[in-house]
Amino acid sequence: MPVIVIFFGLLYIGACFYLYMRMRCAIPLANTGWGIAVRILYIVLCASFFIGFALQRNHLVLSQPFVTTGNWMLAAALYLFLIFFVIDIARIVNAISFKAEWLTFRYKPGDAKAELFATVGGIICAIILIVGYFNAHNPTRREITFHTQKEIQRPFKFVLVSDVHLGQVNGDRFFTTLANRINAEDADFVVIAGDFFDGNPTPVLYSHADSILRSIKTRYGIYAVNGNHEWIGDVYTADEFMQKNGVTVLRDSTAQLPLGVTIIGREDRSERLHPDSKHHGCKSLESLVENIDRTNYLINVDHQPYNLPEAEQNGIDLQLSGHTHHGQLFPLNFLTSKIYECSFGQHRRGNTDYYVSSGYGTWGPPIRTTCRPEMVVINVER
Q: Are residues 9 and 44 in the same domain?
């Protein structure tokens, strides 16, 4: 984990320096007090994500402006980097082949064409961020029906939400809207497929999330599994909060519902790497289904959609996952599609159905440019 953090940290620093060299053409900075102040401000903006993360646990109020600024800066850095990278590739190709005058320039203060491209690049980035913010704050309701040959007592309906990422970015108002939408469905039960918390649970503990969570009404309860962000934060505090407020947290365990349904909750694979783990290794799905009634409709909830054949091999009827956000920020969806057999949506292997949700919240930037967030309503009938 530290190696990955260092790698991406260095990559981010390099991207910020690259952007500084491009954007300074649009905002010429003399070596005066004003110019030095703007440079210092830019450094603080680039570092604000890490500053906010460091302050979050012990200085919650102080961390808020850094967290907000840092999250927006991550998205802005990504899209500005992509925009200027494309421009630079076009300049290189042009210099070799076409030699068009309008693309022949160097990024330096005072060059009119460099100033124009830097300004236009900034405007395009701003438009992308605005559209992405609108997407992230307008979740969609997705309804799916699965069919089974098993003897369920009656058709049933439940709500799947994943990757809520409740915390400083997604707070009480955000969660209240979700709770109201769930209650409007009159569902038999709710499944939370991991990453309910954004990491550090402290912001949630100081919010009204407890009363909002208790306001969610179902016939047979709310069932949750841990995601990687529960382990990044404090999984034991997170689970205690959920259980105190009426949620059944399934950690390599099962719950049997009177509908003829068994829910199997997998511990997130992050548990294997966490130094504070009290279990030191997740149970196999084979061991979890060994003593359950196979005539029940079996729902396996596993936050990260790895190793899909395991569910098929163990007779699971429906596996539910999240984690991927479908990339959240274009073009990262192409990366998640390469990593996972199913990165988003419905999938089927043999007699097993799968659904990988893009999630309801956001990690980092409150922005989505690959798809809108979703609350999934699932019907199961014969």
A: yes
- Residues 311, 212, single domain; the answer is yes
Contact 318, 146 (CB under 8 A): yes
pLDDT at position 23 is: 83
**How many other CB atoms sit within 10 Å of the CB of residue 186?**
11
pTM: 0.90
In angstroms, what CA-CA distances link 278 with 2, 65, 231, 272, 311? 21, 35, 12, 10, 25
Parent domain of 298: 141-381
Same domain, 18 and 62: yes
pLDDT of residue 277: 62
Q: Which of 135, 152, 184 is at the close of a domain?
A: 135
pLDDT digits (tens, 9 = 90+) for 350-376: 999 999 999 999 999 999 999 999 999
Q: Which of 269, 264, 281 is nearest to 227 (CA)?
A: 269
pLDDT at site 58: 79
Give the list of residues 6+ apart from residue 96 with CB closer than 8 angstroms, or none.
Answer: none
One DSSP character per residue, 309-359 reads: HHHHHTT-SEEEE---GGGSSTTHHHHHHHH-S-SSEEEEETTEEEEE---
Beta-carbon count within 10 A of 124 CB? 14
SS3 state at 182: helix
**Same domain for 217 and 91:** no
Sole residue written with tokens 């979740």: 139
The CATH number covering residue 154 comes to: 3.60.21.10
Q: Does 208 share its domain with 103? A: no
Domain's final residue, options 100, 135, 170: 135
Question: For the residues 68-74, what does the mean pLDDT come to?
Answer: 95
SS3 state at 201: coil
Pull the structure tokens for residue 27. Answer: 């905002």
Whether residue 162 is found in the same domain as residue 187 = yes
Domain count for the chain, please give it.
2
d(CA 49, CA 344): 28
Q: How many angstroms from the chain centroid is the CA of residue 273?
A: 20
What CA–CA distance (Å, rounded) separates 89 from 93?
6
255, 243 in Cβ contact below 8 A?
A: no
**If pLDDT is split at 50, 70 and 90, which confidence band does 238 have?**
very high
The answer to whether the beta carbons of residues 345 and 356 sit under 8 Å apart is yes
Residues 91 and 156 placed together within one structural domain of the fold: no
